[in-house]
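Readers outside the structure-tokenisation community will struggle with the description of the input data as it stands. I therefore recommend that a typical entry be quoted early in the introduction. An entry of this sort, consisting of the sequence and the corresponding backbone structure tokens, reads as follows:
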Amino acid sequence: MKRYVLALTMILSTAALADSPYLVDRQTGKYLGNLSSNKLDPNSVSNPIGRYGSSISPDSINNPIGRYGSKISPDSVNNPLATNPPQIRHGGNRYDYGSRYEYNSDY
């Protein structure tokens, strides 16, 4: 019984993670991390020591001098005038940043 519960828990948690919204570079398609508050998820933008959440990682939106986190980069979520901010993808849908993230049906 314990094995069944453990296996079921692992399957459900994997399915939940697979459905997390995530960020990509709109031009290159480069993966930029899961939009999750889970600080233990190695792919979460909320993990302060992870590749996508660290304040020193070049792939992180939390790096204030990085390509995706700088206030002046054209690819940054923190630049309101960005020409290529990351795109949110979730459940087969794309959401582009304008004055707010909007649904993009061209996916």
Q: What stands out?
A: The chain has one domain: 2-104. Residues 69 and 90 are 21 Å apart (CA to CA). The radius of gyration is 16 Å.
